[in-house]
Amino acid sequence: MRRLFLCCVAALAAVGPLAAQESSQRPVRIIVPVPAGGGTDALARKLAEHMAGTLGQAVIVENRTGSGGLIGAAAVARSKPDGHTLLLGFTGILSISPSLYQSLPLDPQRELEPVTMLVTSPLLLVARKGGPIGSLDDLLRLGRQEPGPSYGTPGKGTSMHLTGELLTRTAGIHFLHVPYRGSIDALQSLLGGQIDTAISDVPFYLPYLQSGRIQGLGITGARRHPMLPDVPTFAERGLAQLDGFVSWQGLFAPSGTPAAALDRIRGAAIGAMRSPELRAFMVGQGYTVDTTSGRDFKRFIVEDAARWGRVIREAGVRIDP
Predict the structure, then answer these.
(1) Count of beta carbons in the 10 Å neighbourhood of residue 53
(2) Which pLDDT belongs to residue 20?
(3) Most buried residue, 66, 134, 142, 149, by most Cβ within 10 Å?
(4) DSSP class of residue 63?
């Protein structure tokens, strides 16, 4: 009997190391809730590559799209909270959706645990070169006439649309929103003269600004973008209410993920973003690398959601996913 007891104890003692070994051999999945090929997808793949080296295990990227990112976010929220399934989340999912939608497949702030912010970008208003609007002053002047200029965005309820709504109300102008299926569609209409202006984040428009096909009119934030020194902030034209609005992306885990697993993932992600290679790549794309994490990241999301929520309520924007 004593021999049997000792054998059982030895077997149980071996379970812990074996389970840990099995866990470390399982790949970590980063769910990207938008189609492959865009800036968010590129960030996830670069991040996965660097994190894999730190973690010593495979990190794979899986695109799961639909409903403005909510389908992918809900899939992560429902996954096992063991540190093996993560979300590349962004402004629309965490800060905007709680106020925008009549119903949601998840409660993003309750069911997703912030790991670390990754990058931020101001929001940028642009016009085509040689068009009727050559400056923010032109826009404000023409906006005092009906029906006013038009602006294209990648869809109703996006941070770009809501920035236009905020600009409309703050400046007291007529500014017609034209929603598209994506930023590239809005850009094509802008270049073709079907719309007067468009709004997106800096990384999307940066190549077209550098090629001279479009020009920047105004940008959110308290200071000018280092790669766009000739584009004024909205605050410089007396529209300081747009200062605090940015587009951001970050890493999330399902709520209930153990602290040890969160710390391990957070350390790998922050280390990746601070590596000279990845930092240089993201800065070159027009992003600002920001690794605000833990409680500070959670606090930022709460405050950011309050900012966007006010815009949504004042503009009366509501949609179903």
Answers:
(1) 13
(2) 45
(3) 149
(4) E
- Domain boundary at 192, 227, 242, which? 242
Instruction: Using alpha carbons, list the distances in angstroms from residue 243 to 36, 160, 238.
Output: 31, 14, 11
**113: its two tokens:** 């645990």
Q: How many whole angstroms separate alpha carbon 222 and alpha carbon 100?
A: 26
Domain hosting 184: range is 122-242
Pairwise CA distance, residues 199 & 154, whole Å: 8
Dist. CA 93–CA 73, nearest whole Å: 8
Q: Verify that 149 and 195 share a domain, yes or no.
A: yes
In this predicted structure, the answer to whether residue 96 has a pLDDT above a threshold of 60 is yes
Closest Cα to residue 51, out of 81, 88, 90?
A: 88
Residue 142 shares a structural domain with residue 175: yes
Q: Which CATH number fits the domain that encloses residue 91?
A: 3.40.190.150
22 in a structural domain: no
DSSP 293: B
Residue 21 lies in a domain: no
